[in-house]
Amino acid sequence: MNARIDMASLASSQGSPASVSDDLIAAMSQGLMTQLDLMSHIQHLESLGELRAAANLYALWINHAKATDKHFALFNYGGMLQNLQRPEEALAAYAACIALKEDFPQAYINRGLLFEKLGQDAQALQTWLSLVSRRYMAKPPTDEFLTMALNHMGRLQEKLKNYAQAEQALEESLSINPAQPGVIQHWMHIRQKACQWPIYKSLPGISLAEMKRYTSPLAMLALTEDPAEQLLNSQSFVARTYSFREERLSDGQIYQHQRLRVGYVSGDFREHAVGFLLPSMLDGHGDAFELFAYDYTPEERTPLREHLKGQFDHFRSIKDLSDRQAAELVLADEIDILIDLHGLSSGARPGIFALHPALKQGTYLGFMGPTGMPWFDFVIADRQVLPDELAVYFTEKPLHVEGSYLPMVSYADHAPVVTREQLGLPEGAFVMGAFGNTYKITPDMFATWMRLLQRIPDALLWLVDDNKSSTQNLKAQALAHGVPTDRLVFSSRTAHPEFCARLKLADVYLDTYPYNCGSTSNDVIHAGVPLVTLYGKTLVSRMGLSLLTALNSASNATRSYAEYEDKVLELSIKKKAGKLPVALPRGEPLKIGQALANLNQARSCADTVHLPSVTKRPSVQLFQICYTEETLQSVPTGFGVLDNLSNERPDWREFWPMRNYLMSHALEDDVFYGFFSPRFSYKTALDFEKISEFALQHGSDNDVLIFSPFWDLNSLFLNSFEQGDFFHPGLMSCSQQFLQATGHDLRLPELVMHGENTAFCNYFIAKKKFWLHWLELGEKLFQAAETTGTPLAIALNQNTIYSHDVLPQKIFVQERLVNMLLAGPQFKSKSWSMFGLPCSVTPLSQYQSQAAEANALKMAYAKTGDALYINEFHQLRDKVWKDSGIGELANARDRVLRGEA
Questions:
Q1: Would residue 600 count as lying in a domain?
Q2: pLDDT tens digits for 247-298?
Q3: Is residue 885 part of a domain?
Q4: Are 25 and 70 in contact (CB under 8 A)?
């Protein structure tokens, strides 16, 4: 089509033929401009930035072209009008597209999203429903578009707190395609918020294990009192959700500023549960700190936000910056300690921390559980909320503050005056308040509250009327417990000052379990209302204990539902006697500054946990084993040379030079030693600086630090011996014979090991104590292999295939000496993050999220001994093996070895 396009006319036109080339209109009318011609012209105009002209060309073609498939052009026209901020015209274009072709699903999806953007929620829902209603027509939408529409309906209904409708939409979506982890996650949390019990409901095609696997970390905090299950869930979520690789922008430099620079990253510098606690916490730093805010909060004009802005020395907006740009800003500001205020909660930006722009990085307040994120070094806590015996269930090291880690801040003094009469509360009633989020209410806790209503005749349960579904469901549950619904009083949500005023009308506040109330408990205490809490073995269940202990009122922190009931009953009796406790004493302000100063001084987070002062920093000595002149010339910077040019015993590979070094050198106590093959840097992309920094961060608390690649293999095999036997048949039996001969009681077929205690290829560094045990065990292996004629020696010297070489089994047994020692409790180890190391070149590398989850399941089993975790590991592993085809590869190999193929 050669008709000339007058760009100036098009740019000024609104689609009227009066102002454009007659030739162009004529060409369209005569069918000389096909839709393909149109798209070519549109792309050219877009490349010139002439979007308005492109839109006008669309309009002309739609109005004048002789074509029967204009719905494509109408759909694209609608998208362009959206980009030009002409939403009403875009809606009309989508409507015309649908009118022309009713079975064009993309137009329904986009039209609904535009309605939602314009705040026309009812029209958005109706548009998507129109698409879903075509499901049973002769030409229905594909499953992809049906689930897309249903998921948008569920998401928007959830936002509107229409939880029954949201649940229904997502359930229908899952009936079409059960393999939607994100939808399962939202569906379950909706049931939590609606108090639709039991939360885990049977759905076709979705097992209970899958439901638990895809429960959001926030929801899991309220669903389980098992700390191992919380850690497993967080690690699985991180592996499934965050695919970015770790980098280290910080080179480990220690800045010499006059004041310690601390940065806080948050989107909640506002009227929010976290925001309400921040003023007191920020005041606790003192003059020795220079505070930086990295803010991406939705802008609001409130006194709290303005106050928070004034508490920082520097208030940086990163709302419009990418994660990398934000991290580079942190690096440029030379921040000593960077603290996240989100964790795994909504709005988190972990991509900033994955780039390691600061030497030390931690998390605080935003998420009351283990994050499972490898880029956080510490979590700010106290010794009540996270004692040492529970720290094993956190990937972060606890940085303990004195008193309670929850800041003491009062807003009650500025609250308006409200009365019981205004809220429908009888003056003489014993009012039990429970205003926590509805998803924190569990069947067990609600049953406890119902028993209290039955035991205390004049008691009322005062709840928040958060949403229609939860209110209806809680009333129904009360009736099921034999409690009239008039014993429950529901009040709507209100602004925070009035909320604090309402609290004063309660006689007691009932905490939830296993997810305590957190910041609300602080408001309760400052309102002068007794708080009764129940605590367990998770951080989130010990927040009430933390606050009450700091106030010398720990007697109100109970350890069982029965004790909880009795404590509330005791308070009701005291009220009748006129002896109900008055306001608790105000706690000391949170002195976070001292803890951060200790952290900065100690260099290593591990030092801070155990020693408030500086400990001796571990140093590192790394060696590359050199076999040839070529490897001698390629020694990485910082590495020493471990000369094996003579290669006296090639049948022992790396073991021989390592053995010789350990037998001829006196090792120092506080030094990490590592002996690596020439391919270490190639396989791991790690250098001396990165390893040294890792040792500074984690060396004081560990005997062995591991840098093993191929973490997918470690994760999807029970242990390194099973993995070795897969690639080198006979290794498991050979290793077991050796262990039995040396008196080690390890049953390798049942041994469960994970990423934190498994090393491949001798890619680890260790302290003197460990190396002495390693050498002792290695000497036993050496003697066993050198003693000719014994069954063990024959097995150890039996050849197996390795890449293109033929090597004796003893090489692969030797590489697993480290794992034999780490299988027991004698030594502590820490592994470099799996996100920062390469996978194998096997088919298993395509299943990284499943591999991370498998590793988390093994860790949970190792911490608890609960067979549920290892059984789920086997189910997951078996599915991956089947889907990847690696199991069939092994069968084919075995047939070859047996001479059957």
A1: no
A2: 889 988 889 999 999 999 999 999 888 988 899 899 889 889 999 999 999 9
A3: no
A4: no
